[in-house]
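[09:14] KT: can someone run the structure on this one? pasting the chain below
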Amino acid sequence: MDIASRSPIPSLALIALCCAAQAAFGQTPAHPDSTLLAVLEELKGTPLRLDEAVQHALKNATSIRKAEAAYLATGGAVRRERGVFDPEFFFSLDYQDREQPTASFFAGASVLATQQTTSRTGLRLGLPVGTELELALNSVRLNTNSQFASLDPEYNTSGSFSIRQPLLSGFSRSARKGLTHAERALAAEKARYDQQVLALNAEVEGRYWDLYAAGRDYAVQRFLRDRAAAFLEETKLRTQAGLIGPNQAANARTFLAEQELLLIDREEQLDRQSDQLASLIGVRPEAGMPRFIPVDDPPSDFPVDPVEALIERAQKNNLDLQAAHRDLEAAQGLAEAARWEARPRADLVGALGGGGLSGTAREVVFGSDTLRTGRGGDFGEALTQTAKGEFPSWSVGVELSIPIGFRSALGETERLEAEVLSARQVHIERSHLIEEQVRATWRELAHGKSRLEAAREGVEAAQEQIRIGMVEFHNGRSTAFELVHLGADLAVAQRRYSEALVRTAKAAATLKQLTH
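[09:31] RB: done, structure tokens below
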């Protein structure tokens, strides 16, 4: 006997009820997404494309701004270290006014009063090979009340060109150590900044697909909640018709209550994923909209290169690894300079110079003699004599300094060599970690298509189980308890399908970050 003949429900109502149940649990859609489209289209929110999210993140993300700040700081350090080799202008001026009592006849006055103005000016320059150069001009203007002073005021000038060259300090290895370290640190921070851009792209894409999956999970739960409500109405009608017992209606009520709670959880999860994406990109949904709604769908097919080729590419191109290598080079530069600086210090020093003398000549009375110097002129005359080298001078020598015990220099060398060892291990560790990540991500990507096909098959199988279960339920061979469990299985299968959709896309984004 068929259901219509056994049921006291009017045949028209029973036909309508069966059609509703068929729509609720019986149909097998051609694609797992077809059951969700209606729910997804009803979701309220601000539409957001993936490329828009990435652009907002690049502009607003705090991780990018921090990486940029670190890069700018190392750029400033490079400029500072380069400035060490810039020419330096120096100038000093000193004025002295003294009155000194004297007891010597040759002082020229009982109270010797002098006014002396001393100046020093010139240029200093340090070269990248450690050479120190200095070009200086010294001048002294002296006024005195001594009766024996032949010139008053007297102008005394001297000029010099001096050089100091360290011989045992490694030349440019030592002199450029600060600049070399800063340049390598700048290269490391530039690589980290570029890597942070790639990492942010991958993170935004991952959060975007997480939001996409959360939306699908919500749609699945909404679909099941609606179908559970329809199923409860059917069980009530069948209970009233005496086709099933009240316990099965209670099972349907329990299932509906559980789906209502799960729907609340899924909505909270959806909004939480939207909030996390909004925090990352620094943009909120439009006023009045509770969330972002992803517009793009994740790709499902990606070309997969051999894993060894990807590892080789990552070892060559990964910017984090390049940054670690630059850190290692920077530490090696300091350690190498320290080994040179641990030696005794020997400097070659030399200078070329000349002097000049002029002033206002005056007669000096000494006993019965009146003396007058043949030298005179203004301050410019003294400068001319110095420039022409009328009174040349030169010097050359060696300065040697040997620390007793060498403990300070050797201790610094050991410290820096230990930092080299640490930087080398960080580089090796980073290399191993990247290889491990590439292999794991490659496996996810390689299995992506198979995983998606299996998940799709699972959804279709779960839908077919519900269709068969509904038929059996109508024919009295199944209970509402068994049918609601089949509905839960469908929810799990749909969530697995959503996970499979986004997992492959997130793996592709991560692999791009690791190998570019």
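[09:33] KT: thanks! Residues 3-72+183-329+422-515 form a domain with the Outer membrane efflux proteins (OEP) fold (CATH 1.20.1600.10).
[09:34] RB: yep, looked fine to me
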